[in-house]
Amino acid sequence: MPLQDKAARRRRRWRIRLLVATTFAIGLFVYTRQFHPEAEAVPAQRAQLAQRSRAALPPRVDAAVLLGDQDALADPSMEGRGVGTPGGVRARDFLLARFTRIGLAPAAGQSYAQPFQFAPGRGIRFWRKAWWQAHPPVAGVNLLGRIPGSAEPGKVIVVSAHYDHLGIRDGRIYPGADDNASGVAAMLAVATWFKAHPPRHTLLFASFDGEEAGLRGSRAFVARPPVPLASIVANINFDMLSRNPHGELFMSGLYANPQLQAVIDPVRARAVPTILYGHDHPRPVWDDDDWTRSSDQGPFAGKGIPWLYFGVEDHPDYHRPTDTFARVDRDFYVSVANAMVDVVAALDATPDARIARAR
């Protein structure tokens, strides 16, 4: 074959390769743009919410009790509430007393406690017997309490927050005041309000253990649920509620559950904190900004259960020994806890058909 023919064929092959690569790149760009953070329109949300008139609603939570619960859980005596540690046991004992005082009924059979075990190392398996002997299974315990529904007792809304944190590392206590003593204390405040104002649905309050070890407690919950999964209408998860310099709280879940926006819009229109929607678009390139599976709502999402997650964006003390109660923005946190009561009340008042995800 003449050399010029070979050169022509080579150029043709490279033109085809270039065309395929260009087409692929354009397709990938178009595909990823639909998941771009700009799709969440956060600046536009801020501008819209800046015009809202915050309703002067009476307080739904007792601020002193809320802050006292958070302070107690973040106290150095709790030693950072590591899963399977003495500090975790002390935190659990504190919460058992609070469940009893509020008047929650046990939701794990005749008990509040749902024990579980998991292998350390986030599921990584090693064949060496010596490694397994040096790393025995870790024992965790979820705490589950409920308030029976007055109209729909067979339908369940799970309100959750994890009580574990990082424990002691290199001799330093990680108090976890925001992550996640704040979520647990808010959950207790919501439970207190609904104990005095009976809900339509059954509310199951789940304080999960082992979240920091890979969502272990919530995974154990959906694997061995105390109620049929089909009866769970929705999960509302609280994780980090007490600190944001701009008074902002994010709610994730509408990308997967757009039917819930009509439920939450009226709440955020009058809420004192600025509730922004986002951090839930799938991001094939920048995946860390999708919070769908970043906390205990993840296993519920995996089972197709509608979910909403509330939390602030990371701050300088996230996962550091400096995440202390002294650094909590108390006014902001109290306003968030009041808004969380309103969120649960709005979902509870919504017919199940409007909560269910479209199939």
Please specify the SSE layout and strand pairing.
Blueprint: H1 3-33, H2 42-49, H3 63-73, H4 86-102, E1 105-106, E2 113-118, H5 129-134, E3 138-147, E4 152-162, E5 167-169, E6 172-174, H6 177-196, E7 201-208, H7 216-223, E8 232-238, E9 248-252, H8 261-270, E10 274-277, H9 297-302, E11 307-311, H10 330-348, H11 352-355
Parallel strand pairs: 4-7, 4-8, 8-11, 9-10
Antiparallel strand pairs: 1-3, 2-3, 3-7, 5-6, 9-11
Helix pairs in contact: 3-6, 6-10, 8-10
Could you explain the architecture of this structure?
- The chain is of the alpha/beta class and 359 residues long.
- It folds into two domains: 1-33; 42-355, Zn peptidases (Aminopeptidase).
- 39% of the residues lie in helices and 18% in strands.
- The chain has eleven helices and eleven strands.
- The protein has helices spanning 3-33, 42-49, 63-73, 86-102, 129-134, 177-196, 216-223, 261-270, 297-302, 330-348, 352-355, and strands at 105-106, 113-118, 138-147, 152-162, 167-169, 172-174, 201-208, 232-238, 248-252, 274-277, 307-311.
- Strands 1, 2, 3, 4, 7, 8, 9, 10 and 11 form a nine-stranded mixed β-sheet that branches.
- Helix 6 (177-196) packs across helix 10 (330-348) and helix 8 (261-270) runs antiparallel to helix 10 (330-348).
- The radius of gyration is 24 Å and the shape is globular.
- The model has no long low-confidence stretch (mean pLDDT 91).
